[in-house]
Write a structure and sequence with these properties.
Layout: E1 10-12, H1 23-35, E2 39-41, E3 45-52, E4 55-61, E5 66-71
Parallel strand pairs: 1-2
Antiparallel strand pairs: 3-4, 4-5
Length: 75
């Protein structure tokens, strides 16, 4: 919903989406999110969350490297 309203959305997941179910379902869901303009970070670990007056910073570890995500809000 937020993506369709114009917000940039990043979904951080600890594993593949719908892990434990049919693998094709998780891939299809991920593909649907990407088609909607949502960035999907699967197999990602959140290392640190901090906030200041301008928003939120989230440090994550992805399979390839670490990343810093900045946003106005964290849900």
């Amino acid at each position: 919903m937020f993506s369709r309203l114009g917000s940039r959305v990043t979904l951080v997941a600890r594993s593949e989406l719908l892990r434990g179910y049919e693998p094709d379902l998780g891939r299809a869901l991920s593909d649907a999110f990407v088609a909607e303009g949502i960035e999907v970070l699967a197999d990602t670990r959140i290392e640190r969350v901090s906030s200041d007056g301008s928003g939120v910073t989230v440090a994550v570890a992805t399979p390839g490297a670490g990343r810093i995500l900045r946003a106005q809000r964290l849900l």
